[in-house]
Amino acid sequence: MTRKLLVNLAGVLVAFLLGALVMLVQGYNPLDTYYNLFAYSLAPAKITYTLSKSVPLVLTGMSASLAFAAGTVNLGQPGQLLMGALFATIGGLYIDLPPLLMVPLLLLLAMLGGALWSGVAAMLKHWFNMSEFITTLMLNMIADFFTYWAITYPFFEKNANHPQTPLIARSGWMPEWGSFNSSILVMVLAFVIIWFIVNRSTAGYEWRLSGQNSLFSRLGGVNISKNYIVVMLLTGALAGLAGGLVVMAGPHRFIKDIGGNYAWDGVMIAMVANSGIFLTLLFGFFFSVLQTGSLGMELITAVPRELIQVLQAVIVLIVVAGRGTFETFFAKIEARRKMRERAV
User: Fold this and answer.
1) Cα-to-chain-centroid distance, residue 299
2) Where are the domains of the chain?
3) Calpha distance 252→143 (Å, rounded)
């Protein structure tokens, strides 16, 4: 874990140095820019907002990380997020229970929506051996058009100026304490559960083993087909949960483009984290810091916010492409240290 963290930190540092060079060429002060970037997003008045913004990033990132670690290609997080958001919205429009029952119910509906959508791809793979790489990507487009139709026709709010649903029942809103939104607690709970399953359960061991060597795990008695379906459903549920929380903690309704780039950013986070659950949590928060701070950076230093999008892409490129080089570098350092210890 320590070496993996060092590898990722080295990649991020190189990416920031490249970003600084770009800013110098364009006449900006990189130190001042980076200072305002982090000062804005980590300020006491903004830290809770930054944490809230990290919720869908971490959940979709964990969805992709779990799938990749288990050898499953699930790139359907955008569609699964939208379906989870739609299921939670529909539940919030037609059901009104006390908050103690309403909030968990809508969260379960969101997870159900995401799991059903990923389950379509899982069944196509199981029954017809169709590549989940293709089906999950295609289902994203179907979910996008389907949810747009849903909020434009059957669930459209009358007299609205753009496609959106009415507000869900107030009892389905995520509780807030000051500026702290309880969706953060749901994210933390989901992280703890997924981490425990992956690292402390038999199922998690089988998933990781299948991801590293499916033939060996099959010969060892692992039910590859069953685990594949379970992983697809679970990863879909995580993405759906992200969608439900976006609705319940944010606009409290389904609006056009509600998913934003959360899901694709989550996939990028999973790639940077090398499918590690703990690193996914860290990078989810880190990407949220960058995205939140970009606004303050632009207001104070006049550096365009688009630079942060470029920086995110460079971080992914440097960390993923240079992972082998960084790992070799740190391995040599550790080997030399051990040789010196033995010599002494």
Assistant:
1) 27
2) 1-28+303-344, 29-302
3) 20
**Average pLDDT across the chain, whole number:** 92
270 contacts 88 by C-beta, under 8 angstroms: no
> What are the counts of helices (DSSP H) followed by strands (DSSP E) for the chain?
14, 2
Give the separation between CA 200 and CA 264, rounded to whole angstroms.
28
In tens, the pLDDT along 215-259 reads 888 888 889 999 999 999 999 999 999 999 999 998 999 999 998
> Model confidence over 31-85: pLDDT tens digits?
999 999 999 999 998 999 999 999 999 999 999 999 999 999 999 999 999 999 9
Tell me the fold of 29-302: ABC transporter involved in vitamin B12 uptake, BtuC (1.10.3470)
Tokens of 334: 């550790």
Structure tokens at 221: 């008695």
Cα gap 268→65, rounded to integer Å: 10
Phi, psi of 177 (to 5 degrees): -125, 100
Say how many C-beta atoms besides its own lie within 10 A of residue 21's C-beta: 11
Q: What is the DSSP letter of 255?
A: B
Helices (H), 251-343: 262-272, 277-301, 306-321, 323-343
- Give the Cα separation of 70 and 22 in Å (integer): 38
Q: Is the pTM of this model over 0.85?
A: yes
Would you state the structure tokens that stand for residue 171, as one six-digit string?
């009892």
* CA triple 116-274-187, angle to 5 deg: 50
* C-beta separation of 198 from 210 below 8 A: no
Alpha-carbon distance of 13 to 9, in angstroms, equals: 6
Q: Are 172 and 98 in contact (CB under 8 A)?
A: no
Residues 6+ apart with CB under 8 A from 69: 198, 207, 208, 211, 275, 276
Can you spell out the DSSP letters for 275-288? Answer: T-HHHHHHHHHHHH
Q: Are 270 and 68 in contact (CB under 8 A)?
A: yes
Backbone angles phi, psi at 71, to 5 degrees: 80, 15
Contact 251, 85 (CB under 8 A): no
Give the contacts of 186 (CB within 8 A, at least 6 positions apart): 55, 107, 174, 241, 245
